[in-house]
Design a protein that fits this description.
Helix content: 55-70%
Order of helices and strands: HHHH
Shape: elongated
Low-confidence stretches: 1-6
Mean pLDDT: 86
Largest sheet: none
Strand content: under 5%
Length: 192
């Protein structure tokens, strides 16, 4: 049996695949209960495989160049993005250190202001230095975020643990026993 390779443009391929799929859909409502219906199902599966191959080839002919262009574009900009990220991280770290220093200074001045108030000074006189440092702190744009910090992984509840199925399967295939897991065989249909 010889195969003929025909170059098709994408629109033609889609049209042919759609037509074949529609014809196949009409013929695919087969109840397999005898050798003739089994043969008919096998023929339909071969046609499905052919349609899938045409669609995949045409899709790849469009997607692969786009993926390659995307990869090349990312590679082109990556060095400068990396440099900018390093600069940004450094500058944010410096600003954060300065902000921390100002917050420590603010606490110190608030304690001093409290002591002055207790000694008889007016609120306005005692808090002037605190107000000046508050203005400096307000000039630094910050926001608080919630970040996960795992303190003890052994105490994490089971519902939050996700098994690495691929690693478990590889271990089982290598003969390593994994509690609570086993390899099971199931039969699937192969479309040749």
């Amino acid at each position: 049996m010889t195969k003929t390779i025909i170059e098709l443009n994408t629109q033609e391929a889609i049209k042919i695949a759609e037509e074949k799929a529609m014809t196949l859909a009409d013929n695919s409502r087969i109840k397999v209960n005898s050798q003739p219906t089994l043969d008919q199902a096998k023929t339909s599966l071969a046609q499905v495989k052919e349609i899938k191959k045409i669609v995949q080839e045409k899709k790849d002919s469009v997607v692969k160049p786009l993926n390659e262009a995307l990869k090349n574009t990312r590679a082109l900009f990556k060095p400068i993005e990396d440099k900018v990220d390093v600069i940004e991280t450094y500058l944010k770290g410096e600003v954060l250190r300065y902000n921390t220093k100002l917050l420590q200074e603010q606490r110190k001045r608030e304690e001093e202001a409290q002591a002055k108030i207790e000694a008889g000074a007016t609120f306005e006189e005692a808090t002037k230095s605190v107000e000046r440092i508050e203005k400096k702190i307000d000039a630094i744009p910050t926001r608080k975020i919630k970040r996960l910090k795992i303190i003890d992984a052994s105490k994490i509840e089971r519902q939050f643990l996700v098994p690495d199925e691929q690693a478990i399967k590889e271990a089982l295939l290598a003969g390593i026993k994994v509690s609570g897991c086993e390899l099971v065989e199931e039969e699937i249909i192969v479309n040749r």
